[in-house]
Every structure is written in structure tokens, then in C-alpha cells.
Amino acid sequence: MAKFGFFDYTKPGPGVNKNAPKKKAFFEFFELWFNNIWSLISVNITFFLVNLFIIPNGLASAGMANVTRSIVRGKHSFGVSDFWETIKKNWKQALPAGIINIIFTALLVFGIWFYYTGSGAFSVVGTGVLLGLFIIFAIMKYYIWLILITFKLPLKKIYKNSFLLVFVNFKKNLLIGFASILYYVLMGLIFWALPYSVVLIILILITIMLFTGLRQLLIMYCVFPAVEKTMIIP
């Protein structure tokens, strides 16, 4: 494996001591993050650049899923090189999955807007149903990329299993949603308190260098045990 920039990702990190006492989930998660922060930053920047040139983010999401899966499992990740290797192996499914996600999300957003701007009970019901579907599909995306890179399944079964895991792992899914909302609220407070130009720079730097990697690591930390329990161990 090659070296990238100032950091040598071919050198194994501290890893996870299997004989160490079990930590509380909160502390364990942030220990994983801090131990792998430089690798995640490099992958986060690569993720952003791939999405900048390839709008359907299926390729980048598959690459990120592999890196964060390795970290959560206590395995060493080679960061950017593992990111690209995953894309190379899974692009035939990851690319169309990214396109499907964009189209379906756009249709749901349009449908919500269409019913919301209407009037009467029918519009209220339509808005509620489509909003519920939008939330379910957003949670399904937590699982799609992990299942895609872990199993050799057709896309139909990948989406079916992702849908079922929305309800099987419901509490952890709520935790991810709450953490995401907390982040956006925090960014909103910063936006309100600081000058616009300063906030814009801060948001860009945080998004490009930190947020995606941290969020994807949290998602993987919450969803991998459910996938392992329901699909891998059986």
C-alpha cells in the first residue's frame, strides 16, 4: 500500500484490545473516532471530491462504508486506498444504487411539496404518507451501502433488507437521527451568532474535513451490530 501525504496509512493503528474491559458506547465511539481521525479526514476529503465530479454518490458512499466498517470492527483500514478498492469492486451496483436513491428522493420531495401546497384532508393525508416514506427511505440509506459491500445480493434484496432493518434497529436509527438534528441545530446557532462569511468558511471546512466521516462512523457504529446479528451470524 502507498503512503498518502504526511500520514502513513500502511502502519497499523492502536486497534482494539479484545481483553480490555468493555467501555460505555459513548466513550468507545469517540475513542474509535480519535484513533482514526487522520484516516477519516483523508477519506472525507476524497468522498467530497468524488461527489463533486460524480453526482450520484453511490460510489463514494460504498467506499466510505468499507472504511468505517473496518474501524467499527476493530480492523485496520488503509483509508483512501481501501476507499478506492471498494469502489473498484462494487461500482456496478453502487453507481445504479446512487442513481436510484437520487431519483426516488426527488420524487418524494416533489410529492411532499405537491400535497403540502394543496388544501383539504386529502392533501394532509398525502403529505403525511409521503413524509413518512421520505423518513423511512432516509433511514434505509444507513444500511444500503453496508449490505451492498458485505453481501453478494441483487439490488432488489439489498433494498428489501434495508427496509426491514429500519424497524428491526429502530432505537439506534432514532439515535442517528437525533445526532444529525443536533448537528444542524448547532450549525444554525453558529450561523446566527457569527458573520455570514466566517460561518460559510467554517461550514465548508467542517463538512469537507470532518462531518461526513464522523456521521458515517456513527451510522456504522449503530447499524453494523444489527446487520451482523440478523444477516451475518445466521
List the helices and strands and how they pair.
Elements: H1 25-35, H2 37-53, H3 58-72, H4 80-116, H5 121-150, H6 155-168, H7 170-193, H8 196-232
Helix pairs in contact: 2-3, 2-8, 3-4, 3-5, 3-8, 4-5, 5-6, 5-8, 7-8
Number of helices, counting only DSSP H or I runs of 4 residues or more: 8
| Most strands sheet | none
What would the average pLDDT be, to the nearest integer?
Answer: 84
Structural class: mainly alpha
Task: State the shape.
Answer: globular
The radius of gyration over CA amounts to 19 Å
Let me know the number of strands: 0
Portion of residues in beta strands equals under 5%
Low-confidence stretches: 1-16
This entry's quaternary arrangement is single chain
Q: Helical percent range? A: over 70%
Q: Termini distance?
A: 34 Å
Question: Could you state the order of secondary-structure elements as H and E?
Answer: HHHHHHHH
Summary, kept brief:
With 234 residues, the protein is mostly helical. It has helices spanning 25-35, 37-53, 58-72, 80-116, 121-150, 155-168, 170-193, 196-232.
Structure overview:
- The protein has helices spanning 25-35, 37-53, 58-72, 80-116, 121-150, 155-168, 170-193, 196-232.
- The two termini are 34 Å apart.
- It contains eight helices and no strands.
- It is an all-alpha fold.
- It is globular.
- Residues 1-16 have low confidence and may be disordered.
- Helix 3 (58-72) crosses helix 8 (196-232).
- 79% of the residues lie in helices and 0% in strands.
